[in-house]
């Protein structure tokens, strides 16, 4: 009956201008938006993909990078199943802020959240962060790592598909035992109107 | 039978309907099975037109509704089917059909009875969510409208498994829309706010459905509303955009967000307030909305006016705590927060009772204290390193803001609490005159002054509880002229019942032109001045003796004296005042410490006060005399008249008839039939007969205190009230109305006799007498204080340990009354450090000032 079997919430964070919105647009709409304004607060997109013949719905929450929206954006971390932390490979400061972002995630997100580090704009010639540096950082902090280009559609599909697959994997292996409704983690997300069916399907 | 027939008919007619339309659906595999499809599906299919632009087919919709009403058990399947159709249409971007499906859902929702809705609602909400997930603004707005419609329906049996977090998340996101088209942006934001309002309405009445007050929701809702409100100054809609139609549409996001916030805050119960306020404070912090603070003020006023009034105190408390959290922020931010506090604190004042009042005051004073020490440090380093003093300026503004908040708060409390607060603040004023303390002293006195200006004096004995008056007087002869000025200002505002203060700020001999408001002083006034006049006049005199007086401090002392003259002085006490005036003249003539300028300034206030007296007490001949002296001065010694100058060219030592003459004034008094005997001893120091030593008969209630009863230690008077038992009962008896009257009279009598003794006994003898008693008295007093101190701490301990609450409270009450009495006696008994009373022992070490009542009642407030 339902048009998906799993529902996962994915939140993108990272400094303003690293290309979060472009990544989401590329993935959900297949385009690279020309000159859209900076995201305010939070934006929302949805995409249903297929993994192993199962429909997986991804709710994607794209957040504003600016400090002043931190209060609203943080409130979305809590219920995230996956957090994509994005930096711009051609902009050192966006990489330098990663520890701050990690601290935020530590504080506001579930500790079981799937964390992915993404170095975006890999198409750019003026790279400042070598790939292995990003990789090292990700490894040290127990995150998945990927370099992408929203512009050239490089690794974007892969990024989200891997996330979907990984989350589904987790859901299948750990979820079969009953989940706890109070915890917002993937193992026990609370039911929402939309999620209801998803959860009931899993069991 | 009827139903069967009806069904049959419809089936027949369905069979002949165009099948092409249905076959566009992959869900419907072919036309041949359509006849076998369940009836509800066919009814649903029939509401869709061939051409989406034609809109919902009304007739068929009626049929569907009728069907749903008559077979409510089918409602959930109808809902599910409609949802699936819409989901497919969304996928194929056939928005026209989606709109129709949603419309049908809406109609069914409204038409069907509440108890049958439950399952249908699930499909309905899935549909709404589906639409909200679409990227089309049009569908999102449509979905919101449907959601709001749903939110306004009361469901009989709420569905406890239903969750609204998606809606809160999505609506909050919509509140932040940055759609490039301004019109759409506005519409999406409005929809977001309405959606949030809907969620709140739907959930607020039942926490079990969804606790909307959870931080996970509030942290989204509050910033979303605030974000829209703060944009009020930058309207999104262009002025030239066409005027929208309809009541709902006319609202702009800021207005709607604001009314939504009012509604939300108004529904918050005590446990929810923190989760409402926390995101507000964070939002203001992050969006840097404290400086400037218009929006913060606006927001907090909205909160204060919508919150259930019994909780308004919590808002103040929370804001105060935020000030704590910002202790390391820039003084500008702190000033702004304190300013917001001052703007809303008044609203809370009406609801604050008991300890909460003192807690607020205490917290403000603590902030002040911290700021003072911060400032002291800053000034210190500024002195040494010559760094900029800009920080200090901001810090001072912050202190002003705190004092304002304090004043605003006090302003809205009943007067009796203002007195309590003034005494509380006084208890916090540091006693020592060390460098660091002076700043704090002056800040606290400024706060005190602020509260004092809000107090409307009616009875002076209420405005000046003994212990409070004593502290004030003691400080009015402190070494620091700025402090003395502040203390005088406090006295001014508390004394000035007839609003003459402005006219009396500068000394003048032209009293007529002042148009003073003077009424005859009451009996209570007379008692007050009789009790305290001696202390007050002596203190005034002593303050004028100080060599670091400035024009301002001398003028302030003049103003105080003039106000006392207007408010309090009557025939009975006019001699004392005139004697003060004469003594000041003597001081100006004989002092070796004062500068020539200061002496001229004293002469000037002497003439101004002399001119004032006959306006307050009808003494015609004194008026004539005053006029004469002033005329003489105008002619021959204008430098002895106001205005007070900083510098005088003259060096003449005035003599002769430019001066006030003792004998002539005495004659004026005698002529008016007043007893002028005290005028006979005009030498400085003659003011020192101190009522405070003698009038303490009232309310004696402790054996050990009674031992030092001043009555028995006073010369020539037999101890008066041997019947006094020192129990609670006796105290009650004494305080019962009849007793008070008779006691008062008896007391009066004692006092009169005592005063008589003091007035008539030779000065030297008096000195001798009191001196000998002085040591004994002093010793007894310190014993007494020790006892009291242990008694109070014991009481506090016993309170802590007591297990029986009830008995405890009773005892508490009693001891409260006890200690009140004790304190009162203290107040009057403890001789002040400044007294150069008959005892010449000026350095006589005094026991520390007694602990005020609150200090023992709320010891936790007194931890520095
Ligand atoms: N060269 C290049 N530019 C990109 C890429 N992704 C985003 N940008 C540009 O980076 C800027 C910021 O992108 P945006 O998605 O708004 O960043 P956000 O603030 O993280 O959402 C825009 O000017 C984009 O055109 C990319 O993969 N390659
Ligand atoms: Mg963005």
Automatic annotation (TrEMBL), chain A:
Protein name, UniProt field: Ras-related protein Rab-30
Species per Swiss-Prot/TrEMBL record: Megalurothrips usitatus (bean blossom thrips)
Cofactor(s) recorded in Swiss-Prot or TrEMBL: Mg(2+)
Composition bias, Polar residues: 180-203
Alphabetized InterPro entries for the sequence: P-loop_NTPase (IPR027417), Rab (IPR050227), Small_GTP-bd (IPR005225), Small_GTPase (IPR001806)
Location within or outside the cell: Cytoplasmic vesicle, Autophagosome membrane; Golgi apparatus, cis-Golgi network; Golgi apparatus, trans-Golgi network membrane; Lysosome
Membrane topology: Lipid-anchor
Taxonomic lineage from the root: Eukaryota, Metazoa, Ecdysozoa, Arthropoda, Hexapoda
Name of a matching Pfam family: Ras
GO cellular component terms, A-Z: autophagosome membrane; cytoplasmic vesicle; Golgi apparatus; lysosome
Record flagged with keyword Protein transport: no
From TrEMBL, chain B:
InterPro entries reported in the protein's UniProt record: ARM-like (IPR011989), ARM-type_fold (IPR016024), EFR3-like_ARM (IPR049152), EFR3_Homologs (IPR051851)
GO cellular component, one term: plasma membrane
Gene Ontology BP term (one): protein localization to plasma membrane
The organism's place on the tree of life at top rank: Eukaryota
Compositionally biased region (Basic and acidic residues): 797-812
Gene3D superfamilies in the record: Leucine-rich Repeat Variant
SUPFAM superfamilies hit by this protein: ARM repeat (SSF48371)
Pfam family, one: EFR3_ARM
Region annotation (Disordered) ranges: 796-855
Entry's family note: Belongs to the EFR3 family.
Name of the protein in question: Protein EFR3 homolog cmp44E
Species the sequence originates in: Megalurothrips usitatus (bean blossom thrips)
